[in-house]
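Researcher: Good morning. I'm working through a list of sequences from a screen, and I'd like to move beyond sequence-only analysis. For each chain I'm collecting a predicted structure so we can compare shapes side by side. This is the next one on the list. No need for commentary yet; just the structure.
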Amino acid sequence: MTAAAAILRLDAVSKSYESPGGTTIVLAGADLTVERGEKVSLMGPSGSGKSTLLSLISGLLRPDAGTVELDGVSIAALGDGERAALRGGCIGIALQSENLIPFLSAIENVDLALGFGRRRNGKRGRGKQLLDQLGVVHRADHLPRQLSGGEAQRVALAVALANEPALLLADEMVSALDSATASRIVDDVFGSEMAVLFVTHDAALADRADRRLMLHEQKVISR
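Model: Good morning. Structure tokens for this chain:
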């Protein structure tokens, strides 16, 4: 695999859900490629399948058809443990405060993510450094329920960045922050070497990406 190869590739991916009311098709033959270091925004109306797409990329869901390749590896070919290991070593996932464990403090959440990632030495120092970088180190020993929405969002981002991922998947990563703090954090994230695929409803933020995509009629299209 060359250094220039894509970090993420989806080929003809389909996903649907069954319910008593029938079948809901979320994705139908969707294609997507993200190059190493590329910053890509993804927009679409509520219910269009953005969260499902992120879950498929991270290996939390399996596609009904098509292939998802992460760092040149087909996720479908891996077992549960192998998918978790690949996810822990390659992907950072920021889902606002949803990826925080409620009974662990902010620093414990970050340290736990470090334990699953590639970087296992000096965990406490790395965790504090991330929280400081994101302006929440003073809340390091607080539980998620003791944090404001913006603080929880920044701790969740610290968790996502803990393993120094090659690809960051983010869902409204700065939606709860004031404009100055959001701008600073986006500048830091966009200035990094990692690839970023981020879901947003903010058109101005989406326009800052290298490439802008939209989910439309169960497919990923250029915007």
